[in-house]
Design a protein that fits this description.
heterotrimer; A mainly beta; B mainly beta; C mainly beta; B: mainly beta; Immunoglobulin-like; Jelly Rolls; 2 domains; 6-stranded antiparallel beta sheet; elongated; C: mainly beta; 22-stranded antiparallel barrel; 4-stranded mixed beta sheet; 5 helices; 51% strand
Amino acid sequence: MKNYYLTIFSVFLTTVIFAQERVKKIEFYGGARTNILFQDLADDSDTLNIQKANYGHSLIDLGILIRPSNDTEIITELRMRNELGGFYGSAVTFGLRRLTLKGVINNAIRYKIGDIDLKLTPYTLYNNDYQDRVNEANVFRTAREVVDYENFFGDNTWRRQGMETEFALDLTNDNFKSIDFRLFSTRSNPSNKAINLPERFYSGGSILLNTSYGTLGFNSANLHDLKNTVNDNQLYYNYVNSVSVSVPLTFVKDVTFDLESGLSSEIFEDVILESTQENNGYFWNAGFKYTRSESQLVSLSSMYTGPYFRSHGAQNIRLDYQSQSGIFPVITNDQLSREMGLLDYLYNDVAYRKTFDNKIDVSNPSFSSALPYGLATPNRTGLAISAKETIWEDRINLSTDVYSLKEILGSGTQELKSFLKVSAMLDANYNKWQLKSGLSFEQTNRDGLSYEQIDLTSFLVDFGIDFKLTDNISLMYGGKLHMSDGNDLTPLYDNQNQIIYFNNYEVDNQSQTLNALGINVNFSEKSKLTISYNSFVQYHQTKYTVNQFHVLYRLNL
Amino acid sequence: MKHILYLSALLFIFSCDNDYPEFMGNSLNDQYGELTIVDSLVSSSSSFDFSQPNIPRYFEASWTKNLEWTLTITGSQSGASKSFTGFDSKIDINTTSWLGSADDFPSFYYEDCSVQLLLVDGEIELVQNTIVTIDEIKLAQEGLVVVADFEQGYPTNSIEYFQPGDPMKFEITTGGAAQGEKFYSMGGYVTWDYYLGSLKIAADVSALESVPSSLVYFNMAIIGGEQGQVPADQFIKIVCRESDNETYVYEFKPINWSDWRLLSVPYDEFTLEGSPGNNQKDPSNITMIEVLCLSCPAGPGPIVGGGAPCEDNTNLIVKTNIDYITFTTNEPYQP
Amino acid sequence: MKNFLILALFLTYPLLSFTQGLDDDVKPNVFDKINISGEYRFFIQNRTFIDPYISGIADGDTLRLTQREILIGDATQLPELTLRISANPNSKVSFGTDLTFWNQQTGSFEYFRGMNLGVNLYGSFKTDVGNFNVKTGGIHWLKLSRMTLKQFEGFNRYNLFVRNPWDPQGSDIMGRYSDYYDRGSIVQDVRWGNQAFQGFALDGAELPGDVNFTFLYGKSQTTASSFEVIDNQSYQQSIQFANTQFYASLLPSYILGGRLSKTLGKWNLGLNSLNGYAYRDSIGLETNNYQVHSFDYDFNKNGFSFVGEIGFGKYNAFDPGLAIISKLKTPKKYTFLPFDFEYFRISSNFYNNNSEILNSSINDGISADPSEGGVLQQNGSAILGVGGLANNRTGVSINSEYEIGKLKINFGQTIAKEIDRLTSAVTYGHAVNGLTQSEFYRWQYVSNVGPYGRWSKIFRGIYETVQIDNVKDGEIAFDKYFNSFDFQAKMEYMFNKRKSYFFYLGSFNSVQSKLSLFTVLNESAYIRQYVHQFENYTSLTNKTALTTYFGVERVIGNYQTDIDDMSFMPRNQTALGIGLGLDVALNQKTSLYLRHRYFTYEDVNFVLDNNSGHETTLEIKVNF
């Protein structure tokens, strides 16, 4: 018996020993960036407002990896920045971008504390993509990557602050292989006694069962207040749980059945009146995916997202459409407020949401009416088709997505809106040429009485073409076109996410174009110098043009 | 195993019930629909007899969208007013049932009343009118004890006193009363004393026996004068003397309105003044009620009781007229 | 039961998947190497007045500076600790910054942190058509040509007794003095002769046709931006990364320029252009633009050197102005002494504050405050010394040198004349006590201050403005001629078997209404300025050096200059500086510099212009 225990203990010890390797105690990483913009609002007749803007910055993000031991790592990222035009330290700021502790316990349980990036499924926790692009040109993508980096938009994750742990159970069974666990808890806001704001957390996780038949997962994402952290007045809870299944069909080759279905509950508790208001909802998304090879994929799915389904970690819009840029906020001698557009979303100081709360974000129907909050958009049901193919020796990639949806419950009327969303993308390269293009089309309709009728069409085109002068230098052209025409009635929500009003939204042949011509020098995959000239034209209540010269030098960022 | 997965998936899909309202949010019709009258304003009958409270008196109308509505009934002689409000697309017995009371003094009398329905939809207003006649005014409130209504002149065994100021007006006045036709005027101009005058009324409130003081309400109609013509700080003091000589007082301060208003106070809010007796409020033992008219004197010269004169009150004539002094049980008086 | 639990523990443990350590996430690309260097400089100064400086008059009373002042830390921007950090993400790119830290020793634990030159990014790439270097970000010290982007370097005639904050430090305590004696110059900081530039700079070399180019787009100190208060708190909470809210104005003010150069045989030729764009008003309707284009050449043969530049500049709607600077250097072999002859003629319409050429003729409407783009330089008709250039001026300079044994002598003279009669003011710098006097206004850049309102502060100096009575019938009736003569002698000698050095520098300047071949020494000159500076550096041991200084400066005005209301006489100033110091090398990387200076400044006719005192500074500098 003793020998038996000794053997087991030896195995234990050996695994621990073999897991260790010698690593450096302190290492540095990071990068730097220079971003310079010169913008010109081309309107000679305007004699009251500033017409030109020139600004920029240089910064270094210095990351430090500290390894006090082999299984613990501290990551911190320091930022040092100076604004363009500030000499001898007159416009210098310092900041912290990240502080995270990572570790492994017994080589089995992994944990992270501090700044962490989280993602679950598109219905539970997901950072939805931008709405003003569909396969945009490289000349814009370099600027977009700066927005991604600054706002921590990496691969649809949310940057949160809290803790996370992962571990797995190896089931050592032919059919049931393992169970992966992932749990997290993050802080949304601290308590504030002055305004009776309770402590709020966002917690959840996933459990994934890997089997030879497929996978079965359980996901949970919950936004919840903690009681008794202040003199409780109003408390809020949002629970979202889902089950996901992915099963390769045995009777049809290369076909997988995917399903995710779940429930949500949103609770507003009034502690003083001892009352609660609760909204419950559910969703499901089921479909088949045919993957003949890595280069061919077709999927067909059916979806239903209930009108009261609430999942704030997934129902979000990155851009705050109500934010206003400080660049040329007022135009013409009539002092009109300048409407934001594609140029602002990509280059200027509009606000992107780095976090989410319990309010439904304001959407812009011109950019997305069918699924403004991604797949988790409530009150939608219908079909979705996706296809992807690579042809001609991998030189051409094609993909398309089609959504045909309608409301489940009318908005202010019994009539239902119907939506058609079509997007298509093309990537091609030949010799020194590279082409990227994309098209997104949306149509929203509703019949009924005159004040109920809706007819909104929007159109977004991305086009880019690059020519390689040398291995490192390429000329780039990019274009974006957005058009929108028609009307919609957009809901206004109260503090309890109930619709209280419908705003009349009208656009009359609004269009905006953004063109860019630039040169790109690649020092390495992550170090690039891009110099471009952009021209932006917006036609709506008034027409205006902004011309821009942009220098962006990124080192390792 | 795989079949279990398929079945559970299917079950999940079809297991949920849909229990949804007609649509989400407020009706678009309410927001953007056109406002038109469907049924015009009508009353349940052309004349209202409020002496029979079991027969409902109400009004009806309907229109095309939910909005804020206001129904106002105005007495042509008394000037009494009663209003109903709501948010709906119709009015009926549930929302406009009227028992003959007014929102405040004056009370309705035997008179014609104009009825107006106002519908507001943004900048659009629609008005509907009708007329009803009050054949019988409402019955007296259950448990109502009238101390003085001045309709027959001074109450029995009442004592009036007022200072030798100039001018002074302490008298019964006809016309423009809060209730009925007559009321008691109290006011004048006294430069050396807060006290202008008072009316003591012998009261018989024995009907309130065994009613706890917390459920007894003292009610009185009071009217002041136009601001700038009367002192801003003029006030009335009510003194209730009980049989054990305990005196409980209450002040209505200031009297700065110029239309009849009902002032209703639970007897529990009166405070003891002077020596205690049994140290307990017994409303049914009230034997005397005195109403004092008071205001800071303008001076010049020494002030009775000490203190500084209020020069701002120079040449401002005090006016604190009263009417319909009552006690009620459980609730304030309903004009 | 216990056995069962132990067994269960050891059996389930292997079921836990190995999580592959910490390497699951995308691992950042760590740097192979990060470079950290810098210097620490402790600086403390004690100033005690015997006769405190009068800063002004108020209600009939004189306002004087306090008797004593202690400064810890340098007021001229250089910090206590500079930490230079740089890294190379790959062989082609690098970035760096210089973090600065200050312990202000106020007793309340306030520490200042910032950057001096900012964040700098570099990159290089080679192509078939040439090699390119990119510089972006914070301050880079660059130059194009004398008329476009450059600082005046002079003829290496200066005194070494007063140390500059950026003076490099070597292992030899006498190295600085011996270099100056041996080579006529000392190792200077990277900023020497260059201008500060922020933005984007691209250099290209070995292009087809053997052409090199430089392209600049960004800001110089003359187009600096002004900012609202920036603090780290508001930055951290900034909702967007453009930080436009920190700018007091987003209106563009920038320079755009470049240089194209080529070598043809013995000729080095260059085409230069510098264009400045800014606005005078708050909404961008009134421009403040200038353009300068020039052609420069450099020919060398047999020791002769023919160097020069021809260009023209245009300011706003003014007519273009021509500028010519041409220099001939002759070798000793052919002319007995090496000579440096220079001719210059610079139109009054030539304007470029980024060049060597001082603007003395155009009112550009820019505040003198550097934070608003003001340039810290003398204006009006300035006495510039030998070789100094200004617009609205023409003249010649000659410089030469010779040695007699261990005695090295160099001298130079400039004769110049204003081209157009534009101003009645003349300015001159205070040579002997200028730095001390600039520290009377330690944290400000003031103009027209002092008891008579005629002092203006520049970086580490003071200049004084003189009004000249040369107007007749509403017009300036006389030309102004400038003469400057510098004479320097350097001697090496042995003391205690160690090399020691003695330096003398004399400067003689005058401004008058007639042409003169030499500095005017009588009252016909509006202003005469004579400066004598003696320095001695004696090596006491391998690690210590004794430094001494004596300087005297005389400035005399004639009756056509400002007259005092009380004495009815013109300025008659005497400035004296007597210094004693010690340099000590504490170790190979650390040195201590102690200086004590007695200063006086007196004007016998303008009696309020009097001050005297003692100034002691201690500097400890460490390199790492």
